[in-house]
Amino acid sequence: MTKQLKPNDINSVRIFDAATTRRALRRIAHEIIERNSDLSALVLVGIPARGVALAQRLATDIEAIEKARVETGIIDVSMHRDDVRRRGTLPVVRASQLPHPLDHRIVIIVDDVLFTGRTCRAAMDAIGSFGRPVSIQLAVLIDRGHRELPIRPDYVGKNLPTARTERIRVRLEETDHEPDAVWLEKE
Amino acid sequence: MNSRWTRKDLVGLRELSAEEITLVLETADAFKQVGTREVKKVPALQGKTLINLFIEPSTRTRTSFELAAKRLSADIVNISAATSSLTKGETLKDTAKVLEANHADIIVLRHSSAGAAHFLATRVRASVINAGDGAHEHPTQGLLDLYTIREKKGTFAGLQVAIIGDILFSRVARSNIFALLKMGARVTLVGPSTLVPREFEQLGAKVSHEVDEVLPTADVVNLLRIQHERQRKEYFPGISEYIRFFGLTKERAKLLKPDCLIMHPGPINRGVEIDSELADGAQSVIFDQVTNGLAVRMAVLYLCAGIATP
Known about the structure:
The complex is a heterodimer. Helices cover about 25% and strands about 25% of the residues of chain A. Chain A is of the alpha/beta class. In chain A, helix 1 crosses helix 2 (about 50-65). In chain A, about 40% of the residues are buried. By secondary structure, chain B is α/β, with parallel strands linked by helices. Helix content of chain B is about 35%, strand content about 15%. Chain B is built from eleven helices and nine strands. Chain B has helices at about 20-35, 60-70, 90-100, 115-120, 140-155, 170-180, 210-215, 240-245, 250-255, 275-280, 285-305; strands at about 50-55, 75-80, 105-110, 125-135, 160-165, 185-190, 205-210, 220-225, 260-265.
């Protein structure tokens, strides 16, 4: 049972507001530019739903900084998850969109929260079915720890040590129609 | 998009809500994309076993389900009427129980008796997918027809769909009627009065025996095959008579709107329901239907087999 906590609930702490979210993404955009000399090889691939919105924002930021367009895509991971039949409800499957061919490209997976790493593993498997990119990197807004797989993000908005029972609640204007914010909700 | 799939089986479209139909069509969008990947296979149903139990002959539906299962990484076994123990007197329920004892997770059933899929679904724990039961329903064909219409026309609201031919014996017609009406399309059934009785109006469709009156306003015409195997007596004087009054000839096709879709569930009797050139013409989406059938069946298998088992 998930408790529906209100953002102003006494048990929730706001980690990011709209301004700090924007700054964190801007910094990640700078780090991506610094690390990848050939921006034309990049593809920012978002995991639905919020990762897709974040990938778009990073592309916009990079374009504003470097005056160079970066391609974006969508990778749906639900067909590649290892917990089908363990969940009560199935995630809604969305069509993936990736450039073709994917060989000789650098893919950056973008998601809102990194937790166990299983979604990222599923995304890497899914990307593999489209081709063989030169490398895959990972950008997340929040890394909350508790990895169950050997996965490490390349770009992090904020490292946030959490208890397993706590929840991270991310809100973005594009997907949630409310101001950008990240909340840490205590059990 | 708040609707969630909670069904272990797909027996018919009559019991589905418009939201559930939309969910299947949207899920099929995602699976259609898999067909364009370098690796046309996803691990969604890895470790699951699917049995194609076809007590009535079929090539296209069976092959489509088989390919769908393989693209989802499921293991698959085909059983046809001739090779099953049903010929030795085993009952359908016992056959299914044996399959379940072999840890089958999904049974895709084609059977000549209406209600066979429902019968099985209520008696086994495995998911049962109806691949056609007598003249009752053929839900995945109905869904792929809807998917194709939605892909080409964008919406169902207000669309005029004419279903022409042997309605009485057609499970495809029934699945189409139930689903199209739910999605807001208008359905007219056309054919000789022996094959399109007025009783069908009770389902909410219109009935016409004059094909030339229906064609000019149709957005979609779905031509059905004359089901010789289900007709025990003569329902019309002869094939040439049928072509003269109801066949989609080149002459008659001139009545159609230029953007009217021509559909056919197959197998096509070229020169009977439809002129051969029209079947290959620009308005025909007959082969899109086949491609979409694969995506729709992947979606149905994923949804039915993917829900948590209690």
